């Protein structure tokens, strides 16, 4: 058995920030999950629909691994990411740093992980790996998945090699802090402004605040759109609240990030942005509740109400980002 020493196997809400927390704490940088999410400019929105989907997807964050790229670039950290189509090389890419005493981040499809009780394909899942033996790999996943967990090496290989939406080719990565001292606090405002700029200037209508507006137009028709409304709509609501989002489709994480920032930076616009995202987080939970009720009852009125709340959310988040962009 090979185990990296002094690993704090703390599972948090979201998979990518959980893995980042493990890797960065081992390097000596301990930041809260909301701070990791915010410094990585992680908040976004996408309304994604295609013919093969049982129900449209509401996404609340940037694409998988973009958060990691954003965070490491902004803080001046060295991100070493590797991809390969070779199973042998893929294993070497994780075993070598672990043998040297360093944890490794992995992007994979959670469907093949032994400890996942809900078997759905999601190729953008991220875990930290800190050890292995002849049969199993030792991982840190989110709190809801068990924190410190293990899965078979055979299943892990399948998860890493899976192809499909949001997958990567056996992606693994390590992070190294710079030798010189640095101040992550200096990057708070640039991270907030970059996130606001991207949200407000989204290039297509199903992204950013315009995407939320589109969702408000489309959600009222979901009872007819869904293949099996009684199953599909409550599942969508569950993913919005408990599918690694930290609640309220990542808005609770961003609210808490902004709240931490107000303790470090005295700025009226920052406090206003925090207040607006606190309001938005409550409303996103209301939306998920209404979507679930619609699926359970078959009552379209719940989806009509959800559509109205989404229109309000589009305005609230646009206002919040416009204020935060002025920082």
Automatic annotation (TrEMBL):
It comes from the Bacteria. The lineage of its organism: Bacteria, Bacillati, Actinomycetota, Actinomycetes, Streptosporangiales. Residues 14-142 form the Butirosin biosynthesis protein H N-terminal domain. Residues 156-324 form the DUF4872 domain. Pfam families: BtrH_N (PF14399), DUF4872 (PF16169). This is BtrH N-terminal domain-containing protein.
